[in-house]
Write a structure and sequence with these properties.
Elements: H1 8-18, H2 23-29, H3 34-48, H4 53-62
Helix pairs in contact: 1-3, 1-4, 2-3
């Protein structure tokens, strides 16, 4: 069950991971530190109750947040 909908920035991070980028590559592309990138992903996981990043990506796809 989704607690809250992730922010646009958190969804950008999920999209980058879904596109196959590593956290380091994605943080560079999104012009943020790797620590902030990882915190954004973690917040998205908490908001969606996802246990893993793979589950987070699946939830995001199911809900139409990413393509």
């Amino acid at each position: 069950m989704i607690e809250r909908i992730p922010t646009d920035r958190e969804i950008e991070c999920v999209q980058a991971i879904a596109n196959g980028l590593t956290a380091k590559q994605a943080s560079f592309k999104l012009d943020t530190s790797i620590n902030l990138f990882n915190r954004l992903l973690e917040r998205a996981r908490l908001k969606t109750s996802a246990k893993t990043t793979a589950e987070l990506v699946a939830i995001a796809m199911r809900n139409g947040w990413i393509a």
